[in-house]
Amino acid sequence: MVGDGFLFDMLRTFVRARHPLLRFAEPFTGKLDSYQFNGSKITVTDAGQRVLAGKADHVALNGINRWIGGVHLLGHRVRWRWDERLHRIVSAR
Q: Which H or E element spans position 22?
């Protein structure tokens, strides 16, 4: 489960990315870091559609630099991924 704060932080990241996965469906004039973002309407970009289809990778496109659960994720490659079929973490090599 993802809390509201973490979810909105992820959505902001997808909007701000060099290759955005999301964009505003309506003009947004507020500040991205404010609560105003929480009520905005967003839509998936072409890059986001490719990521959803498994044809592109958000980290490869945009890189990552964040701490999650005591793990520092950094760069444009990931050494492991969650495997939906196996329900476990697997090597991305």
A: strand 22-24
